[in-house]
Design goal:
The complex is a heterodimer of chains A (297) and B (279). Chain A starts with a helix and ends with a helix. In chain A, helix 3 (69-101) packs across helix 8 and helix 3 (69-101) packs antiparallel against helix 10. Chain A has 13 helices and no strands. Chain A is an all-alpha fold. Chain A is globular and about 75 Å long. Chain B has one domain: Orthogonal Bundle (MetI-like fold), CATH 1.10.3720.10. In chain B, helix 6 runs parallel beside helix 11. The longest helix of chain B has 36 residues, at 243-278. Classes of the chains: A mainly alpha (297), B mainly alpha (279).
């Protein structure tokens, strides 16, 4: 009797546990996994996104893409975009974090102002800067006599990409700065004091104390920003839409335009999957590096 | 002596850096605010100066002649319902997984849900649009379902690790006292995971409120169901000539989040940091 009771209790426990998984697994399967599989399927067809019928064409989309200069241009732009973004965000947020961390007064207050951009949506920020690039920045450029600033930087091919990265960084710096500050606070003060007694300069202290302690934090921020760079959409979409002359056409924009404007839906799916391969390879290497770092420490 | 000079120099440099950073952040926001309170004419004359008088026509115009309230309500509704769903779904499934990790089923569910970490949003964006069109879900309900579905991966990743780090003894004694799984979950586990819940809440509210890509794909076709980010984007094409009005729209769109931030900035910064570091 007793054991039977216990058994039914265990059974109902298992039932509750199992019930908890039903909704999420169903939602995830239906709207996530199946749509990925469908996307993969579309990439092997010649569908334009509108027609009621389409044919299976094998790897033709992929083969054509590898020969398509626009695709390679977009890949190049994406990588360049990501590299610039990572460089800007990591350097600026590191400098800001070190500066903020050494403040004695108003530290929390100033930190909270620096965090405001993280609250604002990417589109809002992009649209504000779009106006400023058009109306305010040229005025400042003319006053200072800087030629490339005297017109809207989004209009020229050379300056458009750095301008988009600048606006993205304006928002993206906030979070890594706070993460760096958290990392800095874990460094024991004695280390610095000892170094000071030994006569180490500021740069030596950074190189031999701050930097090694911050390494794990740097990895976290790198992963964060690289992901943002590769999947960037809002900023280029709202600022330039990929122009002028495809100079800011990162892969997200190319996929959107090909699918919904250029009626190359199937080929856009193939583009997405080529991006997926790149991102997955990168994530795997990243995972290996970080797990290795965990063992070392 | 040398260290003293070095210290002074560093302080000077640091304050210079922080001050220019603050200007770079606050000056654009200042321009948005002052120009939202100018007429087009006045802004054309002097873009950088404070408004010469009180001029609230842009605000009045937006509140009365545009559908700002509708878009605000749409954004709020979508965010609220999605986040409620997420808070119901994510911790419970994570609890199941964390406490049955030796069981093959739960372990495979965990890795199955985690696969999403590798998939960039661009891969989803095309097939999901076609799928939602076919299902007749190009509306708020469709968007809410998508937010709930797409939040699972990251949420489970955060929660499973967190719950596995909690001591099991409290739950065990609850079981012995006759609590069933549901009671243990709601009375013991949920209060224990509060810090993680607030992290999830903050991350996902910000994401959903500010998201642009999914509303663009799902809601762009009919104006009545737009969210605030969509409204702002379409404002650019509709009112490109009237830019002080555009500034007013941007200001009003970011205001709700800024107000919430002012009220709980400590928790928000903490929550977002925790989410980023652990996710």
């Amino acid at each position: 009797m007793n054991s039977k009771n216990r058994k039914s209790k265990l059974g109902s426990a298992q039932l509750t546990y199992f019930a908890f998984t039903i909704v999420p697994v169903t939602l995830y399967t239906f709207f996530y996994v199946i749509s990925v599989i469908k996307g993969l399927g579309y990439s092997f067809t010649d569908w334009d996104g509108m027609a009621s019928k389409y044919n299976f064409v094998g790897f033709r989309n992929y083969k054509l893409l590898l020969k398509n200069p626009y695709f390679w241009n977009s890949m190049k732009t994406t990588v360049l975009y990501t590299v610039m973004l990572v460089f800007c965000v990591i350097t600026i947020s590191l400098i800001l974090a070190i500066s903020l961390n050494s403040l004695k007064r108003f530290k929390t207050f100033i930190k909270s102002i620096y965090f405001v951009p993280a609250m604002i949506g990417g589109v809002t920020i992009a649209l504000i800067w779009d106006q400023l690039f058009y109306r305010a920045v040229p005025l400042i450029g003319q006053r200072l006599g800087i030629e490339w600033l005297s017109q809207s930087v989004l209009m020229t091919g050379k300056t458009a990409l750095p301008a988009v990265v600048f606006v993205h960084s304006w928002q993206a710096v906030a979070l890594p700065t706070v993460i760096f500050i958290a990392g800095l606070q874990q460094i024991p003060d004695e280390q610095y004091e000892a170094a000071q007694i030994d006569g180490a300069s500021i740069f030596e202290r950074f190189r031999y104390i701050t930097f090694p302690y911050l390494l794990p934090t740097i990895t976290v921020n790198l992963v964060l920003i690289i992901k943002q760079g590769f999947t960037s959409f809002d900023f280029p979409f709202a600022l330039t839409g990929g122009g002028p002359v495809r100079s800011t056409e990162v892969i997200g924009i190319l996929i959107y335009n090909d699918a919904f404007k250029n009626l190359k839906f199937a080929s856009a799916n193939a583009e997405a999957f080529l991006l997926f391969i790149v991102v997955a390879l990168f994530s795997l290497t990243q995972l290996k590096i970080t797990s290795k770092g965990a063992i070392d420490s | 002596m040398k260290t003293k000079i070095e210290k002074l120099g560093w302080q000077l440099l640091r304050n210079l850096i922080l001050a220019s950073g603050l200007i770079l952040i606050l000056f654009p926001l200042y321009l948005v605010i002052i120009n939202s309170m100018k007429s087009l004419e006045e802004a054309g004359k002097n873009f950088f100066a404070l408004p010469s008088g009180l001029y609230f026509n842009n605000f009045v115009e937006l509140f009365t002649n545009s559908d700002y309230w509708i878009f605000l309500r749409n954004s709020a509704k979508i965010t609220l319902i999605s986040i409620t769903l997420i808070i119901i779904i994510v911790p419970s499934v994570s609890y199941s997984i964390a406490r049955n990790f030796k069981n093959k089923y739960y372990k495979s569910v965990y890795y199955y849900l985690l696969m999403g970490l590798f998939i960039p949003s661009q891969v989803i964006m095309l097939p999901i649009t076609k799928m939602m069109t076919k299902l007749n879900l190009l509306n708020h309900m469709g968007l809410i379902i998508l937010y709930a579905s797409f939040s699972i991966t990251q949420g489970v990743f955060l929660f499973v690790n967190y719950i596995r780090g909690l001591p099991y003894e409290i739950e065990e004694s609850a079981h012995i006292d006759g609590c069933n799984v549901w009671q243990t979950y709601t009375r013991i586990v949920l209060p224990l995971v509060k810090p993680m819940l607030s992290t999830l809440l903050i991350m996902d509210v910000l994401w959903i409120w500010n998201d642009f890509m999914l509303p663009l794909l799902i809601l762009n076709r009919s104006k009545a169901i737009w969210t605030l980010p969509l409204f702002q984007y379409n404002f650019k094409t509709e009112y490109s000539f009237n830019y002080t009005m555009a500034f007013t729209a941007y200001l009003l769109a970011m205001l709700p989040m800024i107000i919430i931030y002012c009220m709980g900035q400590k928790y928000i910064i903490k929550g977002l940091t925790a989410g980023a570091v652990k996710g």
